[in-house]
Design a protein that fits this description.
Order of helices and strands: EEHHHEEEEEHEHEEEEHHHEHEEEHHH
Number of strands: 16
Shape: globular
Strand order of the largest sheet: 13-8-3-4-5-14
Number of helices: 12
Structural class: alpha+beta
Distance between the termini: 104 Å
Helix content: 25-40%
């Protein structure tokens, strides 16, 4: 018998197997368990002779000759003339009779499906590689932005207040470190408190004059000394006590890199409130104009030839920061990671790249509202030292409006009860400046002397 499914098949020993050819019948043979031939072939031939010849186109049936091995080796039968081909008789197990070859039919795989599978596998591999590279890139950016000193980073984290929810507003302390080539140390010449409200799409920028009088470690100091004495943690603590709000994040902008940031964005639009000359032989004319990096840096540094002196410079700094924010948020989601990657070289922060991208995406598609203000202040000379003193009543009201997400310059706005009942807002608990200041402010330069931006 032919192998079926790879196994040899024998006829059953208790029952002969017959094959039909037309009307003729052949007697099958089989072996006994002892291997001797049974004489059924002779008996079958005798019965056929007694019955007489069988009408058949091919004549009488002939007995099948035994195979040399004693196992049937019948070959496929030829069809009778004019009749259909004889079908082999299947044994009880349903398998074809001996001699019939079983051909396996293999299903052909569709080439298109094969290529689709290969394509999907390649795409998946590319996605995995891309994600891995992107993760490494994000990690490198996060490392370049993070505070390198472990002790300083831990102290900062202890001062920061975590944000409860991604949609909740939070405060960020922004410091501008202006370390020029002629300087031996770094100074926080830009001190800005920002309230960020992702769900409302609004940002409030409040400048705190660098010479603001506060108490640091028990002595009267200018508020920018906090960063010089105790780094980012002490700066956060000093501003938090002065404004009466918890601060959740810290960002230090390297002043010299301001040029790179602005040029990277293709320049920034600024409404210059007055015409003046600045350092480096630059001249600014009043009006809305596009500033390149070098111009923006000179504009943000000038305090000698602008109205309000240092107060006027603080206003210019807020304008530049606002313009940068607007330019970044105006970019497409595809451009955003690249922009943040370049910004990472210019800042030091506790924020991760994922945090920054997440916050930026919250603002995408929303109409950005930016409020700009400065702590109401006046100049004060005490013991031969020039300070900036705080107008406490005005400062308290301003912080109540800021915390409520309202315009801090709106004199007619009604303070919500939540902010009105908060005694910490604008309390300036760490300021030793005179509480009776009306007469002092009337005879000094104040924040009201700044040229107004239209």
């Amino acid at each position: 018998m032919a192998d079926i499914e790879g196994k040899g098949t024998r006829p059953r020993a208790d029952k002969p197997t017959f094959r039909n050819e037309g009307a003729a019948t052949r007697g099958a043979h089989f072996k006994t368990s002892s291997g001797e031939q049974v004489e059924s072939q002779a008996r079958s031939a005798g019965r056929n002779a007694a019955a007489g010849p069988v009408d058949s186109p091919r004549g009488a049936a002939k007995p099948v000759e035994p195979a040399a091995s004693g196992v049937s080796s019948a070959k496929p039968m030829k069809p009778a003339a004019g009749g259909p081909a004889a079908e082999p008789v299947k044994p009880a197990g349903g398998e074809p009779a001996g001699g019939e070859e079983l051909r396996r039919v293999k299903k052909k795989k569709h080439k298109a499906l094969k290529y689709v599978g290969i394509g999907c596998g390649s795409l998946l591999a590319l996605v995995v590689v891309f994600v891995a590279i992107f993760a490494v890139w994000f990690g490198m950016l996060g490392s370049s932005m993070s505070i390198k000193d472990d002790a300083e980073r831990q102290e900062l984290e202890e001062e920061l207040t975590p944000v409860n929810s991604a949609s909740d507003p939070f405060y960020v302390l922004i410091l501008g470190s202006d370390a020029r080539e002629s300087d031996s140390g770094s100074r926080s010449d830009v001190i800005m408190l920002a309230r960020v409200d992702p769900s409302a799409g609004s940002v409030s920028l409040v400048s705190i004059p660098r010479d603001t009088m506060v108490t640091i470690n028990g002595s009267t100091q200018k508020i920018n000394a906090a960063y010089a004495h105790g780094g980012s943690a002490m700066a956060v603590r000093a501003v938090s006590e002065f404004a009466g709000v918890p601060i959740s994040h810290f960002v230090s902008v390297h002043f010299e890199e301001l040029e790179e940031i602005v040029d990277m964005l293709g320049g920034v639009w600024v409404d210059v409130p007055e015409s003046f000359s600045a350092g480096g032989g630059m001249r600014f004319e009043a009006g809305n104009q596009l500033l390149n990096g070098q111009q923006a840096l000179a504009y943000a540094r000038e305090r000698h030839h602008v109205s309000g002196g240092d107060f006027g410079r603080a206003q210019a700094q807020r304008q530049i920061v606002e313009a940068v924010i607007r330019q970044v948020l105006a970019s497409s989601p595809v451009e955003l990671p690249g922009l943040i990657g370049q910004l990472a070289n210019c800042i030091t922060t506790d924020l991760s790249v994922t945090d920054i991208v997440g916050y930026a995406q919250e603002f995408l598609g929303k109409e950005l509202t930016v409020y700009s203000a400065i702590c109401p202040s006046y100049t004060l000379n005490q013991d031969g030292v020039s300070y900036v003193a705080t107008m406490f009543n005005e400062w308290k009201r301003m912080m109540q409006l800021v915390d409520a997400g309202l315009d801090p310059n709106d004199a007619t706005a009604e303070i919500p009860s939540e902010q009105a009942d908060n005694a910490d807002l604008g309390a300036a608990s760490n300021s030793p400046a005179p509480r009776d200041y009306e007469d002092l402010a009337a005879n000094a330069m104040t924040t009201d002397d700044v040229a107004a931006v239209e």
